[in-house]
Amino acid sequence: MTRSLLVFFVATTTGCTAAQLANTSAGYREVEKTVATVLISDAQEAALGQQIRKELDTGTADRPALKYCTDAQVNGYVEGLIAKLTPHADKDRPSKWAVYVIDDPKTVNAFVTPGAQIYVYTGLLMMSETEAEVVGVLGHELGHVVARHSGRQMVNAFGINAISEVALGKDPGTLAQIAAAIVGNGAMLAHSRSDENEADTFAVKYSAAANYDASGIAGFFEKLIATHGNTPRLLTWISTHPAPADRIASVNQQVMDQGLAGRGELGAERLAPIKQRIAALPAR
Ligand SMILES: [Zn+2]
Asked: 38 CA to middle of ligand 1, Å?
């Protein structure tokens, strides 16, 4: 992809001048988002999400296939939390949400792929102390979907030509290639700091809308730092989600500014039995 071609395309479809849009990195992010919105339909995102799921389920020598949690109570608990949040996210961008719980209590992680497919590791539930913390992380992942971060990243990573081919159905193989590349290099996990901050604002928004303590995601970060000190890079979620200290401050500021401090539920008593259940699942 050449940047000038991309800017030209968007400028002609939105009426903005290329100079206005490309002058700043924030402007360039908006260009990518607009291209993603124009070119990548929800159906195509869904198809890509399915393709990525196939890749994740297959695994490779370097990357074992995902193992899903089969405990109905644990799965139902996570699905219930998602169901509390998605009506609010749907007001920003209606999506066909799906959530998969991965049976891996040692990995503290959650991620979302194109097509609103959310993956949550049991290790994330084990690390959290309250339901509000889990909800904060889930709200953050929903925010990535609502703000079209994956589509924007795809335009950035693969170029407008490849994305156009997928959009026009010219080359069905391109979709599979993009899915393999996304899984292979972990592109779906690595977000920019701007994307992270934007997703955090959605975490606050959706947590509050679902009547949870809106600082849950900040509490989750604090827990990670307290538990793992200066080695947060060992934790996948943190290593792909930069600058936790800055983000704690930013989330807490938003909570204060919006008058949300001390409001909403924590729900620690509902998470506790689920954690006990995960701990008692057969060893894997
Ligand atoms: Zn994120």
From this structure: 23
